[in-house]
Design a protein that fits this description.
Its cofactor is Mg(2+); Mn(2+). The protein is built from 10 helices and 18 strands. With 323 residues, it is α+β, with helices and mostly antiparallel strands. 44% of the residues are buried. The model has no long low-confidence stretch (mean pLDDT 94).
């Protein structure tokens, strides 16, 4: 029986969602095949949490844990950390150095996709369309007129490297721009400002399933709020419709774009990319490499629509990693 460490938590605003994702993986992992261990990764502590919520510190030298006098090591790590250090390449590089297989993509892909600006720049030459954008680093002079002239209004201000829609604002007037920039700087020292794309928003999951790269049924996002923000994502302020109510041609175009991005970047594990259609053409917003795995999350919804159970989804991720 293989020992699987499910890492969850993290150092960002997304840690609560990650704990839920990690516990879902723990709940649905095939108990006949795997012995699962919940590992909480926080700035102040890395601990194994047992069934009674007792905590045992992780030895970071070899990612082992001493449980009542017995040393426990792991055959594979199931990475369920959204945000840093699980989604930005830090944990991936650490496990690569320790030679422990983990379910997410490699460290370079994680770092690249976590940086919206760099991801979109790399994918552009491959024909993947994006919004017009403007970049700021903390300390840069904010030229509001120049930003508005380039992008128009409304526009979106986003932290370059943060997830779950933390720090994102939709800006409708010039006066709101500096305030939105301040909000985004609370999450990150780099900002991406994008033109508003008015169209149908979809989320596209791509996974390697039994050795073949497949696109899962597409989800259409209909937000009650101005955009698919934290409330819309996690507090029911949106409708998520799977499969999306889009034409065959649109489905094909966005599936091809999402799959091309996965292949071009040499991705592994799960990826979930968000697109908005403008004049029938999909424009990529971002790619998540450790998407939510809560029962409400999009990848589990899409897998279900494809006839893949959560147990199958998680077993597949581990088996591909081990082989």
């Amino acid at each position: 029986m293989k020992n699987i460490a499910i890492i969850m938590g993290g150092y960002s605003s997304e840690y609560k969602i990650s704990l839920i994702s990690g516990n879902v993986v723990y709940q649905f992992l095939d108990k006949n095949k795997y012995k699962a261990f919940r590992i909480h990764i926080f700035k102040e502590k890395w601990v194994y949490v047992d069934a009674n919520d007792a905590e045992f510190p992780i030895d970071r030298n070899d990612f082992s844990v001493n449980i009542n006098g017995a040393k426990q090591t792991f055959d594979c790590v199931f990475n369920a950390i959204h945000g840093t250090p699980g989604e930005d390449g830090l944990m991936q590089a650490y496990f690569e150095l320790l030679n422990i297989p983990q379910t997410a993509c490699d460290y370079y892909q994680a770092a690249l996709t976590f940086n919206k600006r760099d991801l979109l720049s790399v994918l552009k030459p491959y024909g993947i369309k994006t919004a017009a954008s403007y970049y700021l680093n903390k300390g840069d002079i904010i030229k509001t007129d120049e930003i508005v002239q380039k992008l128009g209004l409304p526009c979106f201000v986003k932290p370059n490297k943060a997830g779950s829609s933390f720090g994102i604002s939709k800006v409708k007037t010039v006066a709101e721009l500096p305030i939105a920039i301040e909000v985004a700087y609370k999450e990150d020292n780099e900002i991406i400002i994008e033109s508003f794309l008015d169209g149908i928003e979809v989320s596209v999951g791509v996974i390697n399933y039994k050795g073949e790269i497949i696109v899962l049924p597409i989800t259409e996002i209909v937000s009650e709020n101005d955009f698919f923000d934290y409330e819309a994502k996690y507090e029911g302020k949106s409708q998520e419709i799977t499969p999306a109510r889009i034409s065959e041609e649109m489905t094909q175009k966005v599936s091809e774009a999402a799959k091309r991005a996965y292949e071009v970047l040499k991705m592994k594990g799960f990826s979930r990319s968000e697109f908005i259609f403008v004049d029938g053409e999909p424009h990529m917003l971002e790619m998540n490499t450790i998407p939510g795995l809560t029962t409400e999350s999009l990848i589990p919804q899409q897998a279900k629509a494809a006839g893949i159970s959560l147990e199958d989804l998680f077993t597949n991720a581990i088996e591909l990693t081990l082989n």
